[in-house]
Amino acid sequence: MEQSDLKVDGNAIGGLLREIFTMEVTTAETTCAGCGKIHAVGRVDVYMNAPGAVVRCPACGQVLMRIVQGRGRYWLDLTGISCLEFSAEPT
Amino acid sequence: MSSRGPLLWRIGEVTDLIPETPRVSSLVIDVPDWTGHVAGQHIDVRLTAEDGYQAQRSYSIASAPEDGRVSITVERLDDGEVSPYLVGEVRVGDKIELRGPIGGYFVWRAGGPRPVLLIAGGSGVVPLMAMLRHRRAVASSTPVKLLFSSRSYEDVIYREELDRLAGGEQPPDVVHTLTRSQPSGWRGYKRRIDAAMLEEVAWRKHEQPEAFICGPTPMVESAANLLVAAGYDPTWIKTERFGASGGG
Predict the structure, then answer these.
(1) Which residue of A5, A24, A40 is in closest CB contact with B244?
(2) pTM of the entire structure?
(3) Cross-sheet strand order for the sheet of B144-150
(4) CATH code that applies to domain B10-102
């Protein structure tokens, strides 16, 4: 199995993100702290083969987010995102 | 439906099982207090073994929002943890744990003026079928084309329903390509989606279409790149990639 076989996108972690943020996040826009490119969360690259989800910028490959879940807790690393923008109104 | 607030696990009851191809079945699920969905959204399904081990997968919703029931269409992956149960073992009347609807990016609501291009690889057709069923349910006249890549004629999911839709009123334009084997006399495409095929099938860039592409990651990325090369603005293209084979 190649690395590309394990690559999905932000839609695949919509449920997990909803658990954490208690709102729909795949329509939010992320700004990559590395290259500054903006993408919808549904569009970003996601690798599920790590012990958790690793979210990468589709433009430059930098890690945007790492999400690990276990023993009743979440670990959420957002250092790769400089801004997360989303609607204040429920869609 | 609300896009705010926690998403609760619910118990749905399987009310119908529909074989689609030798390896693919649809499950119609009655979910009490279902709050509705938008075409393109998915649900998470969770199975719990007797020892407490849990496995969870996402499945696109295949039914139109107007349907009221939730149906999913599942491809059986023999080494998967969840799909062999959903395709083969589950019976009408069984209960399934699920949560949803999930997702707001890869969705389409009828009513906009822009023509729509749908590109599917294999079971990637499922959320696009929800869009076609939604379009049909609301008698939308939005021009829609579906380019659907399958391995063989027998592997074409929803084949008869797509034929009916294409022969109905305000029909979508349905184009198949069969990449591995073709029945004798097949006059359609018989190769993977490429630039020449998109040149023949896709809306022109001056028509400012919306495009939805769903399927295995390599196929989705290839098709999206080809559309951008053909002049599509990247913001016109929404993609949903499910890895090489769907994740099991």
Answers:
(1) A5
(2) 0.94
(3) B173-178, B144-150, B116-121, B210-215, B237-241
(4) 2.40.30.10
